Amino acid sequence: MAKLSFDNIGEFSQARANELFESHKKYLEWRKSEWASRGSDALAKRVAARASTHKTWRQMKGFDLMRHEMNHPGNKPFVIGMGVMSFIYMWSFLGQSQSYRENAEYWSKYQMKKH
């Protein structure tokens, strides 16, 4: 059986009673605010407030969504890889001279316009 000890309670004075009363009062105020935020009307109000201030990835489009996805740690290697490969492709494309394009089989067959 557990032995109960009430030695450390201290003296119950007017100041201690006021302190306990204030802490309970704060707790009850917090609980009242929690109770006020429940129910279907309060839920609709919270959802509307959140929708107006928050933008989830499902609501994003275009560059916002792309920027959001690029910032995920798991996507960083793919983003770096796409950036490097895009740079290499652009560098190789822009590095081709007009004479090289004219002599290339694919370029001269499909891309060059012969007037």
How many whole angstroms does the radius of gyration measure?
35 Å
**Mean pLDDT metric:** 84
Question: Termini separation (Å)?
Answer: 105 Å
Helix-and-strand structural type: mainly alpha
- Major beta sheet, specifics? none
The helicity comes to 55-70%
Please report the number of helical segments: 6
How are helices and strands ordered from N to C? HHHHHH
User: Runs with pLDDT <50, length 5+?
Assistant: none
Q: Which band does the percent of strand residues land in? A: under 5%
Q: What general outline do the C-alpha atoms trace?
A: elongated
Task: Give a count of the beta strands, DSSP E runs of length 2 or more.
Answer: 0
What does this structure look like?
By secondary structure, the chain is mostly helical. Helices cover 68% and strands 0% of the residues. The chain has helices spanning 14-36, 40-53, 62-70, 76-94, 98-103, 105-111. The model has no long low-confidence stretch (mean pLDDT 84).
Summarize the structure in short.
With 115 residues, this protein is mainly α. 68% of the residues lie in helices and 0% in strands.
Topology:
Layout: H1 14-36, H2 40-53, H3 62-70, H4 76-94, H5 98-103, H6 105-111
